[in-house]
Amino acid sequence: FTKYDKAKAYKVQMEKLLEPYQLEGKNLKKQILDWTEAMKSPKFDPKEKDRYEQGIRINQRKLEDLELTVRKLVGTTQEDQIVNLFKEVQTAIRAYAQANGIQLVLGYGEQIEGDLYVFGNINRKMQGMDLGSCNPMFHVPGIDISHPVADMLNSSFQRAGAAPSSGVTPVSGFSAPKQK
Fold first, then answer.
1. What secondary structure does DSSP assign to the chain, as a single string?
2. Residues 42-52: what's their mean pLDDT?
């Protein structure tokens, strides 16, 4: 997935999809902070305290609602994207393997950069094995087909116009917050 341009495009589209929600959240938090700071001022009129506190509570509720909306939107959209990407990757792997006489392809996640022998990386692998996954303990150089498969996928993606075809539109019932 990390080498597939379509997965990268999905990530960028997700960021764009979330941008208005993040902006609204930032504005709500700024108002809460501004009102809280205003109430601390010696020049603050105590008669306004209830109104300011009510505004803070309303914005806190709006933030909670916004967070719930974003969580649902991200979850559903990412699920669609991951399923779509997984099917495409699996199809490309099958085609590459058949074209190259490969009878078995194993998928595994490996730390790409840095020290492979840090506790976090080793612990992740051991937990995976505890859950029934297999991890390659040794393989000969050249056996990794991820680069040619990614090249195949990227070539196809570029020919198609480099625009993800599914899994990036907002879920029905969700729309970006209106800009202020």
1. -TT-HHHHHHHHHHHHHHHHHHHHHHHHHHHHHHHHHHHHSTT--GGGHHHHHHHHHHHHHHHHHHHHHHHHHHHHHHHHHHHHHHHHHHHHHHHHHHHTT-----------SS-TTSHHHHHHHHHHHHTT----S---TT---HHHHHHHHHHHHHHTTS---SS-SPPTT--PPPP-
2. 93
